[in-house]
Amino acid sequence: MPIIANDILKMSRENVLNLYEPDQQHSRHITHLVLSMFDGWSELHGLRKNYRRLLETAALLHDIGITINFYSHARHSAYMILNAKLFGLTHKEQVITAAIAGWHNGVSKNYFKDRFYKELLSDANWKTINKLALLLALAESLDYTETSQIHVIEPGINKKTATLKLYAQGIPSIEMHQIQEHLSWFKKTFGVELKVQLATAAEE
């Protein structure tokens, strides 16, 4: 019997992307940035590689709620992910993925914990969701203007400090301002400061 899809999750989330027609260039760029953070800060977050595919799915679909309402799109994205035909995920994994996307503008525990599925997730699950949602929020801030101005990032760890070097076309002043909004969240979540550095032209 022929294999219909080598990666059923990849195919199903592409179907969701194409169905709701968000800004796919932005979504894919955000996904590239956030996976770079996940890989570069593996020592910092300490999460299993299985969570990488949940983060990838959340990043690709984080803006689909815009089709319902722009200003509250994060929670709408979460609802749509919860109810999407995402084959290849368990129900619990789909809830986690939805929560990651739903928090990309900031933590909103009440929205999820008041729902009937709250018993699926442990306190440890919520801590994991917080870490991954923070990474997604950072990535979102790095393409706030949706122009892909910041094209490469280099996450690192230097003693007791996390570092993030940005390579950009021009001066991404709006993105540099936006990422500052998440520094306290980063310190609270990981227990270290995040130092953001814009690479000079000579370094590119």
UniProtKB/TrEMBL annotation:
It comes from the Bacteria. Residues 12-152 form the Ppx/GppA phosphatase C-terminal domain. Pfam families: Ppx-GppA_III. Belongs to the GppA/Ppx family. This is Ppx/GppA phosphatase C-terminal domain-containing protein. The lineage of its organism: Bacteria, Bacillati, Bacillota, Negativicutes, Acidaminococcales.
